[in-house]
Structure formats: structure tokens, C-alpha cells
Amino acid sequence: MRRNTFPSRLSKRVVGGHVLYAPVVSYDVGTHTLVFVSGLLARNAAGEIVGKGDMGAQLRQVGENLKAALEAVGAGLGDLVRTCTFVTDIDEYFRHVEIRQQYFGALPTSTTVEVRRLSHPDFMVEIEGFAIIPSARFKEEQR
């Protein structure tokens, strides 16, 4: 069964009166549930950009947003099996490896790509996450 989740600690992306996407989509495949987290940006719950011009601050906010997204379906950062990171300055990103390690110390597989621009010129980092959890844990969280 597929389920869309809109964690209360994340802002909803609304354009023209339409919610653009579900931040978390989970899919029960029997004994386990696959959790897909859309690309998260450095926005607070009110939708305001956090850390303009500060890669470290943006990494922290995105890490907190990813943590909140996973917790909404009973998962945690340790359940991540893959991340995909998009940054606007890869050299600056690698100056903040210690922040990444605080959130992803379990070392999921990952890809990091430098891009020209993200959805707003003030964003410097966007991270997608993919996790797997036991279905029983997912079902408990949904009660």
C-alpha cells in the first residue's frame, strides 16, 4: 500500500493553490516499508529560507528536515540506505563534512552532485533520502 505523508514540522510547497508534492511517500512491500523522501531544502516550518549564504546552516536545517520527515513514518536517520545531495558549490560543501557526519554517520550510500542552481537562488543544498524499515514499525507509527 502506498501512503503520502505531510509531516507537520515541514512546510508544504504550494504554488497556485496546489500542493506540489508529498514530502514523504512510503510503500509497504510485505515485511518492510520503503520510504522515499523528496528533495528537502533549508526551509523552516513556516517555509522561510534558513541560512542564506551559509552552507553549514543550510546543511543543519536540511538534516533536521530529513530527520522530521523520517520520524513522521516511524523511521530515523539510521534507516537511510541512500541519499542524493545537490549542492551549488561542491568545494564549500566539503568544508562542512562534519555537519553531514552528525546526521549521516551511519553512512548510507550517497551521491553528491554540483548543480548550477536550485529552486531559489538562496538555496545551496538539497537532499533526497531513501530508507527501509520493518513494516510493523511503520504500521505502529500510523496508528
Distance between the termini: 15 Å
Estimate percent helicity: 25-40%
Number of DSSP strand runs = 8
Assign the structural class, choosing from mainly alpha, mainly beta, alpha/beta, alpha+beta, or little secondary structure. Answer: alpha+beta
Rounded radius of gyration (Å): 15 Å
Give the percentage of residues in beta strands.
25-35%
Quaternary organisation of the protein chains: single chain
CATH topology: 60s Ribosomal Protein L30, Chain: A
**What is the general shape?**
globular
Kindly describe this structure:
The protein has one domain (2-141): RutC-like (60s Ribosomal Protein L30, Chain: A, 2-Layer Sandwich), CATH 3.30.1330. Helix content is 26%, strand content 32%. It has helices at residues 55-71, 90-94, 97-104, 135-141; strands spanning 2-5, 14-15, 18-19, 24-28, 32-40, 80-87, 109-114, 125-134. The longest helix is centred in the middle third of the chain and has 17 residues, at 55-71. The radius of gyration is 15 Å and the shape is globular.
